[in-house]
Structures are given as structure tokens and as C-alpha cells.
């Protein structure tokens, strides 16, 4: 879980959550192993009230947060419930462009008007696709991706739809988000947290 802990600490740093003085309502969408939700739910320095959702229950850590299994992009929470919403490498898995729009709209709906969101997504134009480790996989037209995956014997179905920056930014604006790209800062923070002795 060391990697998940470093990721959670990076999210905390990028969002400036160390300065949060009051209990923070936090939602992690697509919690996976549960490491990020656990980090915030058991934070030693401040109080986070954490909910986590996922379509599959593949958690390895269960304590420190409430978990709800969902069946699709709809979130089972009232409008404006959370101070912080985290979607870490989820949007590329939710489906087609309409589902991606719906995912962002749901994040915005449950976030307080002055809340903070964290959205991480692999760039479609990365030379090596991060889920399957194949060069140029996500560069291909959608219809060619699964055949390439099968030809390279890495899987049966390419179920990811990574976005380019030019594709993502209009979707964020359409959902009503004000946003700042933090690629450089995220890389620096990752290096600082993961370097030996950190």
C-alpha cells in the first residue's frame, strides 16, 4: 500500500488540505484497494469524514471510511454534500464520451459550490499506455485498440477511453468546473514524496 499512501499524500499536498481547519467531508470515486480512502479516514493530523464508492469491491483496506458499491456513474449522495471529491484514474474506465460527461456531472453535483476536486487521468498521447504497457495503444482509433491488445496477448478487451487535454478541458467546463492543470507540480510532488528517504 506504499504507492497508494504516496498518492494520497500527493493529493493532500496538491489540494492544500493541510490547511483545512474543520472536519472535511471527502468522497473518493473508484476507491479500488481502499488505500487513499484509508489514508484520509485515519489521518493523524486532521479529521476527514470519508466515503468511498466503486463498481467492484476489490478493497484490501477496509477501515477508516464508509464504502458503498455502485452499479454505474450515478452517485448515491445528495447535491453539495462533499468538501473534496477525488476521481483518480477513473474517467477512462466509465465508458463512452456520454458516460464520461455523466461522471464529471455527478462529481460536480455532489461537490459543494466552494469544494475542491481532484481528477487524474492518463493522457491519451502517452507513448506507452499505462494499463497494459503497450506502446501507442491509446493512439490508435478506437476500433483498432482491442485487436492490437489481443494480437499482443495482453487481454481480450480494451475497456479504457483515455482523453487528450483538448478532449478533457471542454468536458470539465461543460460540467461547471473551474480547473487548473498541475502536471509540473504533480511530478515535483511525486518525486519529493517517493524519493529515497522521503
Provide a descriptive summary of the structure in words.
The chain has 198 residues and is of the alpha/beta class. The protein has helices spanning 2-15, 35-41, 97-110, 142-151, 165-174, 183-194, and strands at 24-29, 48-54, 66-69, 82-88, 111-120. It contains six helices and five strands. It has a five-stranded parallel beta sheet. Strand 4 (82-88), helix 3 (97-110) and strand 5 form a beta-alpha-beta unit. The relative contact order is 0.13.
Brief summary:
The chain is an alpha/beta fold. The protein is 34% helix and 17% strand. The chain has two domains: 2-121 and 163-194, 3-Layer(aba) Sandwich (Rossmann fold); 124-161, no CATH class.
Which descriptors apply to this entry?
198 residues; alpha/beta; Rossmann fold; 6 helices; 5 strands
Low-confidence stretches: none
Strand content: 15-25%
Q: What best-fitting shape do the alpha-carbon axes yield?
A: globular
Sheet of most strands:
5 strands, parallel
The CATH topology of the largest domain is Rossmann fold
Give the end-to-end Cα distance, rounded to a whole number of Å: 16 Å
The helix/strand order is HEHEEEHEHHH
Name of the CATH superfamily of the largest domain: Vaccinia Virus protein VP39
| CA-atom Rg in angstroms | 17 Å
Secondary structure class reads alpha/beta
What percent of the residues sit in helical stretches (DSSP H or I)? Answer: 25-40%
Number of domains: 2
Q: What would the average pLDDT be, to the nearest integer?
A: 90
Subunit organisation of the chains? single chain
If classified by CATH, what would the architecture of the largest domain be? 3-Layer(aba) Sandwich
CATH class of the largest domain: Alpha Beta
Please work out how many helical segments DSSP would assign: 6
- Strand arrangement, major sheet: 3-2-1-4-5
Number of strands: 5
